[in-house]
């Protein structure tokens, strides 16, 4: 059949706010490779937004529809596959992506129960091109589906007409990635420069590590293959010319950015474009897990527009062995943090709660050690059991005796035109034979406190001051955790609501969630932001926009108690200046009147310059008497925040996305001497 009509879909939800902000680069590669092989014999349309696909299927149906399969869009791909087959019973449904079981029996069950005909595992260009090649040799639309499913296709898992599922796996991967024409340079992705989606760049594929919780831990993708530097340069230039004025972010999808020599060149190219166009203002990367010296050299070129990820997941050696993370040097990553801070680089670390063998004590030890490393941002996530990960195989699940529950993936829900409510649902570990559920809930509340304090730059002054008197940040946060009853009523409510939401978001089965939210009254709770949120980011945004002064005062009062307990003499003047600094920096961040409400304080010490000098006393940085300081936002900061709010929405849900996406260094006020 020529031309063969193809829809390729990498769907995101945008019911209340945009859920996944990335360009559909994945299906862009598939489309580009298919077009270069078959030219005008194929007609390809790309889809990111659910409503656009719904509308397209009402007016025209393709011969083949393809869906990317990730944890965040599996159920919507399922429903849209069903709708497609109702409209075109002779059409073919193809899926591909990493959200696919590792063990063979689970793979067969996966394919059997879903409305798909062919699954393309690993990288999709090879398998999908084989599907198209066969399809082009079929002449009858009425017999198309039947003839496509008479036998297996190389690089695919096929559900054949006789009910059998046959696999012709191939470990062949494109080693020279430049063989794929650029979906940017060919214009295939032009429609997605819409002021909502963030451009995504890929410079290599593959991951040499074998972490069992990750879908990229498989040996089939352990070889790292690369695009050429000149190709990446050309794409960067193209993106910088096409991007809309309200878009400030660039995403890099590499799994270990900075580990390889070519990454230095990529950073130099981005730096040159930043100097020419002021884009991107924020570069989101996942840093490599080894060779931190090389990573820091690359990241340093991007300055404060990016951050270096020092993800450890756990610092307990037995837990790391349990998840096969022994080939990553967590100690070296953490040891690098002080050097990075001296270079002015932002650092981020991630911890996973619920890993096999983790206990309440070991997770607290990891949090304590990460805080000691003075990381800028610390995220403590609940472990998901992903379909493509080794940890989600029957063998591993039985081994660790996980206590699992189900919850809605944040913001991933929609009511389709046919009235069906579709939600994405994840299975998470909330306990095991070494961690109780009550311990899980308490650590989640601590995770919220860690997130708020670490991502608020003014608290770095407080932490440095505390260090002078040998008071640890962990001790401060743990004392806050155990003394919530001493906080203001508003703050107590925020903490208690978070804790209750942490419990109430968990369900015993996927089916319970799906049935419950078909009720219009319950679905309205999702629309109103009262359910279905990333609780850490949602309550963080609530704190920053509604009770940040209360939270700051709670931090300061708890610190004062710790100082008194240690009988620290003559600290009051320094502590007073730092307290006012903390309150000034975080004042009225999201208010419409934030440019007019600029707090002003007398100040005795030069905190800004003191923070730049390692191991010094604040008393060594006095200001002249009667010095005053005001805390302001620049017009550039105001515009950048407004641009993000225009994309995601100026409400609790939207603000939670904004805080997650934007470079938080640009969020806070700056002290200015009057």
Describe it:
- It is a single chain.
- The chain is of the alpha/beta class.
- The chain contains 26 helices and 20 strands.
- The strands form 6 sheets. A 7-stranded mixed sheet has the order 2-1-3-4-5-6-7, with helices on both faces. A 3-stranded parallel sheet has the order 8-11-12, with helices on one face. The protein has a 3-stranded parallel sheet with strand order 13-14-15.
- α3 (74-87) links the parallel β3 and β4.
- α15 crosses α17 (473-482).
- The longest helix has 19 residues, at 437-455.
- The chain starts with a strand and ends with a strand.
Give the rounded overall mean pLDDT: 91
Number of strands: 20
The gyration radius over C-alpha positions equals: 26 Å
Principal-axis shape equals globular
Termini separation:
74 Å
Helix content: 40-55%
Taking pLDDT < 50 over at least 5 consecutive residues as the criterion, the unreliable ranges are none
């Amino acid at each position: 059949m020529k031309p063969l009509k193809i829809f390729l879909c990498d769907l995101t939800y945008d019911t209340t706010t945009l859920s996944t902000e990335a360009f559909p680069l994945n299906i862009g590669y598939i489309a580009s490779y298919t077009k270069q092989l078959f030219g005008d014999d194929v007609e390809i349309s790309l889809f990111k937004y659910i409503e656009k696909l719904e509308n397209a299927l009402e007016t025209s149906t393709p011969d083949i529809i393809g869906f990317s399969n990730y944890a965040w869009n599996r159920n919507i791909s399922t429903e849209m596959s069903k709708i497609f087959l109702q409209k075109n019973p002779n059409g073919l449904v193809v899926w591909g992506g990493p959200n696919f079981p590792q063990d063979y029996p689970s793979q067969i069950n996966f394919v059997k129960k879903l409305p798909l005909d062919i699954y393309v595992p690993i990288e999709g260009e090879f398998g999908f091109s084989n599907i198209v090649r066969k399809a082009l040799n079929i002449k009858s639309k009425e017999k198309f589906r039947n003839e496509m499913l008479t036998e297996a296709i190389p690089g695919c898992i096929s559900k054949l007409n006789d009910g059998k599922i046959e696999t012709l796996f191939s470990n062949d991967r494109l080693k020279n990635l430049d063989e794929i024409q650029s979906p940017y340079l060919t214009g295939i992705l032009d429609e997605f420069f819409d002021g909502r989606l963030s451009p995504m760049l890929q410079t290599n594929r593959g991951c040499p590590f074998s972490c069992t919780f990750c879908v990229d831990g498989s040996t089939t993708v352990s070889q790292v293959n690369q695009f050429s530097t000149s190709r990446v340069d050309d794409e960067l230039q193209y993106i910088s010319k096409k991007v809309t004025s309200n878009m400030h972010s660039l995403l890099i999808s590499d799994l270990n950015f900075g580990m390889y020599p070519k990454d230095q060149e990529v950073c130099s190219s981005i730096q040159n474009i930043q100097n020419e166009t002021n884009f991107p203002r924020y570069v989101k990367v996942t840093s490599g897990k080894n060779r931190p010296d090389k990573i820091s050299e690359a990241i340093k070129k991007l300055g404060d527009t990016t951050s270096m990820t020092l993800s450890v997941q756990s610092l307990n050696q037995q837990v790391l062995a349990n998840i096969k993370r022994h080939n990553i040097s967590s100690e070296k990553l953490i040891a690098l943090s002080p050097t990075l801070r001296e270079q002015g680089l932002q650092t981020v670390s991630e911890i996973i709660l619920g890993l096999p063998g983790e206990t309440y004590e070991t997770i607290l030890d990891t949090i304590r050690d990460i805080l000691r490393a003075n990381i800028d941002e610390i995220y403590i996530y609940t472990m998901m059991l992903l379909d493509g990960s080794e940890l989600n195989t029957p063998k591993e699940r039985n081994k660790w005796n996980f206590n699992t529950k189900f919850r809605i993936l944040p913001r991933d829900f929609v009511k389709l035109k046919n009235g069906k409510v579709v939600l994405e649902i994840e299975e998470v570990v909330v306990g095991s034979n070494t961690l109780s559920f009550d311990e899980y809930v308490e650590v989640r509340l601590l995770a919220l406190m860690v997130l708020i304090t670490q991502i608020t730059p003014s608290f770095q002054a407080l932490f440095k001051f505390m260090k002078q008197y040998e008071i640890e940040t962990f001790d401060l946060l743990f004392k806050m955790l155990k003394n919530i009853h001493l906080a203001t009523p508003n703050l107590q409510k925020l903490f208690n609501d978070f804790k209750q939401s942490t419990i109430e978001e968990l369900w015993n089965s996927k089916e319970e969630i799906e049935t419950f939210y078909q009720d219009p009254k319950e679905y309205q709770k999702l629309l109103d932001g009262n359910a279905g949120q990333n609780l850490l980011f949602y309550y963080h945004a609530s704190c920053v926009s509604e009770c940040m002064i209360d939270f700051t005062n709670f931090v300061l009062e708890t610190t004062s108690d710790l100082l008194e307990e240690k009988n620290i003499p003559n600290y009051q003047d320094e502590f007073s200046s730092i307290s006012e600094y903390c309150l000034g920096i975080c004042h009225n961040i999201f208010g419409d009147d934030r440019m007019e409400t600029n707090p002003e304080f007398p100040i005795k010490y030069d905190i800004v310059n003191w923070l730049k000098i390692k191991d010094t006393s604040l008393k060594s940085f006095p200001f002249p008497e009667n010095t005053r300081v005001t805390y302001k936002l620049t017009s550039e900061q105001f515009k950048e925040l407004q641009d993000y709010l225009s994309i995601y929405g100026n409400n609790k849900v939207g603000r939670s996305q904004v805080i997650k996406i934007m470079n938080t260094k640009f969020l806070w006020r700056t002290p200015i001497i009057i």
